[in-house]
Write a structure and sequence with these properties.
Two copies of one chain form a homodimer.
Chain A: E1 2-6, H1 15-24, E2 33-38, H2 40-51, E3 63-67, H3 78-84, H4 89-98, E4 104-107, H5 111-122, E5 132-139, E6 142-147, H6 157-174, E7 181-185, H7 196-208, E8 215-220, H8 222-225, E9 232-234, H9 237-262, H10 266-272, H11 276-286, E10 294-297, E11 303-305, H12 312-327, H13 330-341
Parallel strand pairs in A: 1-2, 1-4, 2-3, 4-11, 6-9, 7-8, 7-9
Antiparallel strand pairs in A: 5-6, 5-10, 10-11
Helix pairs in contact in A: 1-12, 3-5, 4-5, 6-7, 6-13
């Protein structure tokens, strides 16, 4: 297996990307290679400084570089960047993936460009109008899939129906959840609640869930979303991104407040020592980094969006997660299942 | 001062409402009365069971009942309920407020009906098109005002501009923040980010902030909202409610996970005892109940929306908060300031 890694994307590139790959290479299968896509000189200069080697292949012969000269920046307009920066690490990554020269592509770069590239260069699965970003959040003794996390700002009810179908297939095949519970993110549980999109999506989901093999559990409010009883919540990319970042913001506040509460006085500091393992266990549950990258569901090949602020630890984790994703044949299974329901008449 | 309390609204009514009032009456000023609005027989029967008294006035002569026969239920359609349930605790509460027979009205009942009632029965402040619910969330060593928390599902840019102006005035006068930092809740910080509403609102805010005395700090993402550097975030009621409930859901998860992490084994349980004060301090920071009710900003008289699942503790706190709200003359000051800027030409 070849994992394609955009070495130039993300807030901490290329150091975090390189270090994450170096760490991961000993933890993935011995037949798995990581191909770092980016400027060879820049990468090897960092390798020299970080590891004292002239070339990354001296660290492991399963670490390789594919040389590119351009980088898509966060400020770039997605479609323009994808069309014009032909030798950027992201565009080259997508092309390698498309040509079968790699099995999965990971990037922590510009999200908009990543979606545009995935759709334009790799292509959509037949039957899916809009691919979407599926992120994994913590939930009580479980996890919560959130789709769309931010790739499609404006959505129609049919998109949300497809998101529900994609997450069902994905959760069944990747997490072995037999009958995943899919909810519609809304501001109330009654079917009349919400805006035009949620009201129409509710009806479409309710009327078509059974024939599309979706276990639709109705409207779900954020306050109940993390109970562990819901496996996925579907929403448009604007609302999903607001939700995701609220969770992230509160996570940061929790970490900071807990730390400072414990440091408040010398007695608390001493007192906190015996319970540090428990608090660390708790912090790990709450840390989004434990949950890895988000997947672009709906494109023909596996594309993983690593967190923009990924550090080496998160790249390491995301690389291992991407390997798992390929092993599970999640994309192939999605193509097969959408093929089966393509002729289904919706009501 | 007379505080009007809807005794029949909320998930735990009337017990929590009664108990909260009984607790609060000894903590508010000796000239403050609480008037419980609801069915006299039901209230006194509960008073009998809870306190062994025949009438609530036997507990304190500053606790009184205003008898009503109807209750607005959570399932009721707001406008229909407000128009037809003339003898409901909520409609009667609004009428007493309007007639000056009380200084502030608190209800934990149906939010939609509360907004409809506040707007139709009490009336909007001149210059404000849509009153909105302003909630208070925790932030780092501070608090974050979120407006609109859920009263106006669909908003226009002009509404968001007015929300920004209202929160500025409110924060200046109630929390003594000289130049409150107001952000627009969005999915990115660049001005081109977001949906049509956020992009247009950004421009309107940017162009008119100075003349309306708003310290507009631009787009704010949820991940940065709780840093303590932002005093208020403005958004439409749908997005605001999604945000609010995400925070609430994560808060519940945090509490549950932390508790269970500490109980994981006997060593952690023993270990956690010395740091319990610190953990309790932390839990208090994170608990939305410490932040009380949300205010309907933009109506001519003070209206407080207590949390639907308020318990006695939260009612107690909300009653004290409402007293403070009246003392601060927050509504009168808002009327005065909007009067001053009414002739301002927007660009």
């Amino acid at each position: 297996m070849i994992i394609l890694l955009d070495a130039m994307g993300g807030d901490n590139a290329p150091d975090a990307n390189i270090k994450g790959a170096v760490q991961a290479i000993n933890e993935v299968k011995s037949t798995t290679e990581v191909l770092l896509i980016g400027n060879r000189d820049v990468i090897n200069q960092r390798v020299k400084e970080l590891y004292g080697k002239d070339d990354i292949s001296e660290i492991s012969d399963r670490l390789k570089i594919h040389h590119t000269t351009e980088t898509i920046e966060m400020e770039d307009t997605p479609t323009v960047a994808i069309k014009h920066k032909k030798d950027s690490s992201m565009v080259v990554g997508f092309n390698l993936l498309k040509e079968g020269k790699g099995d999965v592509f990971i990037s922590a770069g510009n999200s908009g460009a990543l979606l545009t590239g995935a759709t334009l260069l790799v292509g959509r699965i037949k039957g899916i109008d809009r691919p979407a970003l599926a992120g994994i959040l913590p939930a009580y003794k479980s996890r919560l899939l959130l789709i769309d996390c931010g790739s499609n700002t404006n959505c129609k009810p049919i998109n949300l129906l497809q998101f529900a179908q994609m997450s069902s297939i994905y959760l069944r095949n990747t997490f072995n959840i037999e009958n995943p519970a899919i909810g519609l993110l809304n501001i109330g549980t009654e079917e009349t609640k919400g805006n035009e999109l949620t009201r129409e999506s509710y009806q479409l989901l309710k009327d078509n869930a059974e024939k599309l093999n979706i276990n639709f559990v109705g409207n779900v409010e954020g306050r109940d979303a993390f109970s562990g009883k819901i496996d996925a919540i579907v929403t448009d990319g604007f609302t999903g991104n607001i939700f995701l970042k609220a969770v992230e913001g509160i996570g940061k506040l929790v970490k900071r407040s807990l730390k400072e509460s414990l440091k408040k006085n010398i007695l608390s500091i001493l007192g906190s020592i015996p319970c540090l393992p428990a608090i660390n266990r708790f912090a790990k549950t709450m840390d989004y980094k434990s949950y890895g990258g988000a997947l672009f569901l709906g494109v023909k090949k596996p594309v993983v969006k690593a967190h923009g602020s990924s550090d080496e630890e998160l790249f390491r984790f995301t690389i291992k997660q991407a390997e798992q994703f390929v092993e599970n044949r999640a994309v192939e299974k999605m193509i097969e299942e959408f093929e089966k329901t393509r002729e289904t008449k919706l009501v």
